[in-house]
Amino acid sequence: RPLVALRGLAKRYATGTLALTGIDLDILPGDFVALLGPSGCGKSTLLRILAGLSGPTGGTIDWPSAAHDAAGDPQRDIGFVFQEPTLMPWATVMRNVTLPLELAGVKRSEAEDRAAEWLARVELKGFEKAYPRALSGGMRMRVSIARALVTRPRLLLMDEPFAALDEITRFRLNNDLLQLWEAERFTVVFVTHSVFESVFLAQRIVVMAPRPGRIAEEIAVTAPTP
Ligand code: ADP
Ligand code: ADP
Questions:
Q1: Distance between Cα 19 and ligand 1 center (Å)
Q2: Which of 79, 97, 123, 129 reaches 20 to 30 Å from 215, CA-CA?
Q3: If you measure from the C-alpha of residue 45 to the centroid of ligand 1, how many angstroms do you get, rounded to a whole number?
């Protein structure tokens, strides 16, 4: 059963731009999907629709196994990682990661235990008391990843998360993200315009094309036999 199923999805902005058309896509639990394509092909629009930040203007989006709230909206339960880590500068690394848990009603001591676990998983043990400005760009990105995963969301959306980092840092983060995914098997949709990143990370590469934004083809990445 797919986690989310898109059928004939379309998005036309008020400006008239047809940002997406005819999007048919199933995302299965545990998938690592790359959305690959040039600027303007609708990758960010698709992520925002998955996140519920923007509504489609055509087609359907279904969350077959999600609970629905009183208004009938699916509980999407999403983690989002942006290119610019949106950490709170006045709060420690620990507090940045515990906050989503506390907002979900988890008590402080348990939130700190869980945050410490995720900070260790992203190799930030020992930096709990640091403030974001004291960290490098790559480390801030690791904090963002821990913060997005600490609530164990059903779906992790990443919008060109590493694009602003230098090449080596970017490679290390790709490597670490892949190891984390292999250990935890969360579901990821990862937007990129890098073929290298797509092939390195994803099992499924959804290639998109612009004007109008659409799916051009899907490529399944075959893992090398060990
Ligand atoms: P990508 O992430 O692949 O670069 P986007 O989803 O950002 O693509 O944009 C797809 C198309 O929709 C582009 O032509 C872009 O200019 C347009 N667009 C994006 N956001 C808006 C918006 N809020 N209002 C109007 N047009 C938009
Ligand atoms: P909607 O509320 O229709 O789902 P968004 O919330 O994504 O769409 O749009 C936010 C606003 O961004 C739009 O109403 C528009 O005024 C503005 N915008 C217009 N053109 C663009 C563009 N090319 N890229 C990004 N934002 C745009």
A1: 6
A2: 79
A3: 6
Provide ipTM, 2 decimals: 0.74
CA 65 to ligand 2 centroid distance, Å? 30
Q: Is 10 in the pocket of ligand 1 (CB under 6 A)?
A: no
Side-chain-side CA neighbours of 130 within 13 Å: the count stands at: 14
End-to-end CA distance of the chain: 29
Contacts of 182 (CB under 8 A, 6+ apart): none
Reading the chain (226 residues) residue by residue, the pLDDT tens digits are 999 999 999 999 999 999 999 999 999 999 999 999 999 999 999 999 999 999 999 999 999 888 787 777 777 789 999 888 789 999 999 999 999 999 989 999 999 999 999 999 999 999 999 999 999 999 999 999 999 999 999 999 999 999 999 999 999 999 999 999 999 999 999 999 999 999 999 999 999 999 999 999 999 998 766 6
- Which ligand has its closest atom nearest to the C-alpha of 57? 2
> What atom in ligand 2 is closest to the CA of residue 17?
23
